Hints:
155 residues
Amino acid sequence: xxxxxxxxxxxxxxxxxxxxxxxxxxxxxxxxxxxxxxxxxxxxxxxxxxxxxxxxxxxxxxxxxxxxxxxxxxxxxxxxxxxxxxxxxxxxxxxxxxxxxxxxxxxxxxxxxxxxxxxxxxxxxxxxxxxxxxxxxxxxxxxxxxxxxxxxxxx
Length: 155
């Protein structure tokens, strides 16, 4: 099966514009598959659901926007004959690095996502702890990373 730009190459080059839409990446598809059940699951506590939905939805929006922008630039430049198809790994890496940097600038970098995930895990643990009859003894035993940094900077 040929891609749209292979079948319609002459039209794209003649009009110097790519009209065939933007593919949805596997990353975005995977995140949507994770998000959809969380939205409708009645057994997930509201606070946890809201945090997970906010994190996943934000990441989907950022990734979708970044991939869309980069694909649009690439396909239009390709249609205008500004460069050939990317076959060299260095060319692909340049786009990848640009996307990773933009993710970081939009608070979706790896370290930023890991910090958010840790906070969600803490919410889940707090939820389970709320059922512990001995929770008064356990309160304050688990420190969160943000709390440690604030305490360390105060001294």
